[in-house]
Amino acid sequence: MLQSTSWALAAALALALSPVCAKPPATPASAASASGMPALAPDESQLVEHGHYTNKSGAVVHSPAHAVTSQAPAGASAKCRDGSFSFSQHHSGTCSHHGGVASWL
Q: Could you tell me the pTM of the whole model?
């Protein structure tokens, strides 16, 4: 009986002292869109700017960026009036500070 009690006490102590497992923050490659589909992270080598922001759904999204070529980068959802490409997952606020949306992709 003493042996099983010691084991239970040791297990409870180990559980109490173990670090809490928290979900890691979303990254551009693992972020999910509002539809539940994984966001397609753009190839950073094809972009001039490399910023990110957290959208209203809590997903980390690439900020609007100019492409190295004239082609839309993978994952772009809109082309902004200043020539940059947006990776926004919501229409609201897309291309703000970039002249607004020139066209949806």
A: 0.62
